[in-house]
Amino acid sequence: MDLDAVTKQSALHAKPDGLTLQYGTAGFRTKAEHLDHVMFRMGLLAVLRSKQTKSTIGVMVTASHNPEEDNGVKLVDPLGEMLAPSWEEHATCLANAEEQDLPRVLVDIGEKAAVNLHQDAFVVIARDTRPSSEKLSQSVIDGVTVLGGQFHDYGLLTTPQLHYMVYCRNTSGQYGKATIEGYYQKLSAAFVELTKQASCSGDGQRTLKVDCANGIGALKLREMKHYFSQGLSVQLFNDGTKGKLNHLCGADFVKSHQKPPQGIEMKSNERCCSFDGDADRIIYYYHDADGQFHLVDGDKIAALISSFLKEPLLEIGDSLSLGVVQTAYANGSSTRYLEEVMKVPVYCTKTGVKHLHHKAQEFDIGVYFEANGHGTVLFSKAAEMKIKQLAKELEEDKKRKAAKMLENVIDLFNQATGDAISDMLVIEAILALKGLTVQQWDALYTDLPNRQLKVKVADRQVISTTDAERQAVKPPGLQEAINELVKKYRLSRAFVRPSGTEDIVRVYAEADSQENADSLAYEVSLAVFQLAGGIGERPQPGF
Ligand code: 16G
Ligand code: MG
């Protein structure tokens, strides 16, 4: 390592005094103007990680659903996964080192992680459409080059597309071609093949309105839609030509406000969906004939997909294990439906894609979705080989068809991470094959009314949780208080957890009616405020 060169270059990307940031649930996120040094340093770190894993590493510049003025950065590990936890710690140390300590911290990480510095390094970089992203990704490149790493800059990509590129490159192209056309072709071919068997149903079934959050999803979907136009016509809204990124639109807005985005024309019973700003989340919704809004969230996506997969799996007669992974935010009705009606095992992990992804890898077929619309289905290598073999070998026509269908499903799901475009195509294929309307899909089960609130406290780390964030172990007395409050309502449940992305505590409550869910959420917020050092205004009842 040429540490002198690092010091010199670093001075051009100097860290503001006293600023400390944390590699959180989805990397570093804050106002774009505070991120230049972090980008440079993540370029350095990506080189070390690449040398250590002898693989290509990805760096994505994005702040997902956050406001346009924000930005962020995260590293992508060799098989398209999120960065390993021990390296998240290295990332935090490196980002917070004062200028004069930077060389020492860099050497430290190299030693701790046993990095062979003579190894070659290769880093792939991409960014979202934020005005600040281009300059910030140049800072990443500066970091990569000063340590002698090679790189390829993909320019504008969705986050899942960068994960896909990393995965392709580290599997010698076996997973697919590491180009944007490679991505379009792989997914579209699987979609067209899968939907061939759908009987032609009316027009309404095959058009979809997509709110692109004024983000990168719009650019990519516009390029891609010609590849699958035989099977589906998508109409883009909030495509970035007028509105501001994530402003009053996008998956996060729709999910948290439980109302449609601005800038989309919804007719009754029309199927619509929203991506978030970097297109790794998707949420569906519609207006019924009475003008009432209905949200079809990540939980319902998991329910649709799992019930769809059960049939061909049963048909091929092979006992591949199927598991569904959710978080504490999963609506109680969805968990009950999956366990009691679908009879599939359901597991709960902590919030954040990496936790769900990890758990889903334990099954032959692991379906994972967060209620907020992050998710995918992972097939183990063994399951994939088995299915591909059966698709070739099986004599009986029906069985072979089922295996072929599963083969297409494998190709259609982005196996590297949750992907709004890939998930959208899977959902559209399933609806077409099953001849289901969005209302029929929504009717799989009825969501329990729920409410989410935020509470400000002096230090959110005074709350610690266990049991996949469903129980608070600290501060003393908080869980007991929550238990007492929950007892007052029917079909109720509540939990609190410190946010991994904002300086607040999140409260979730559900109950038999909206009124009860609202009161429970309010009462739990008050308990947090009193027992966990609330600051500012006390929580107020009513919404
Ligand atoms: C991040 C996570 C998301 C999680 C959210 C929770 C990824 C790619 N994203 O956006 O999965 O739901 O954080 O935020 O992992 P919170 O900790 O503020 O509630
Ligand atoms: Mg996102």
Instruction: Record the strand order, biggest sheet.
Output: 1-3-2-4-5
- Mean pLDDT score, rounded? 95
Instruction: Evaluate the radius of gyration.
Output: 23 Å
Could you estimate the helical fraction of the residues in percent? 40-55%
Share of β-strand residues = 15-25%
Structure class: alpha/beta
- Which outline best applies? globular
Largest sheet: 5 strands, mixed
Distance between the termini: 57 Å
Total count of strands: 19
CATH topology of the domain at 3-156: Alpha-D-Glucose-1,6-Bisphosphate, Chain A, domain 3
Low-confidence stretches are: none
Q: Would you identify the CATH H-level superfamily of the domain at 3-156? A: Alpha-D-Glucose-1,6-Bisphosphate, subunit A, domain 3
Bound molecules: 2-acetamido-2-deoxy-6-O-phosphono-alpha-D-glucopyranose, magnesium ion
What is the helix tally?
18
CATH architecture of the domain at 3-156: 3-Layer(aba) Sandwich
Which CATH class of the domain at 3-156? Alpha Beta
Describe this structure in words.
- This protein is an alpha/beta fold.
- Among the domains are: 3-156, Alpha-D-Glucose-1,6-Bisphosphate, Chain A, domain 3 (3-Layer(aba) Sandwich), CATH 3.40.120; 450-532, Alpha-D-phosphohexomutase, C-terminal domain (TATA-Binding Protein).
- It is built from 18 helices and 19 strands.
- The protein has helices at residues 3-11, 36-53, 85-96, 102-112, 133-146, 159-170, 180-195, 216-224, 251-257, 298-316, 332-341, 353-360, 381-393, 397-412, 420-434, 438-442, 478-487, 514-531; strands at residues 28-31, 56-61, 70-76, 122-127, 150-156, 207-211, 233-237, 272-275, 282-287, 293-296, 322-327, 346-349, 365-369, 375-379, 450-455, 464-466, 471-474, 493-498, 505-510.
- Helix 8 links the parallel strand 6 (207-211) and strand 7 (233-237).
- Helix 2 packs across helix 5 (133-146), helix 7 runs antiparallel to helix 14 (397-412) and helix 10 runs parallel beside helix 11 (332-341).
- The termini are far apart.
- The structure holds 2-acetamido-2-deoxy-6-O-phosphono-alpha-D-glucopyranose (16G) and magnesium ion.
- Residues 64-65, 276, 278, 280-281 line the site of magnesium ion (MG).
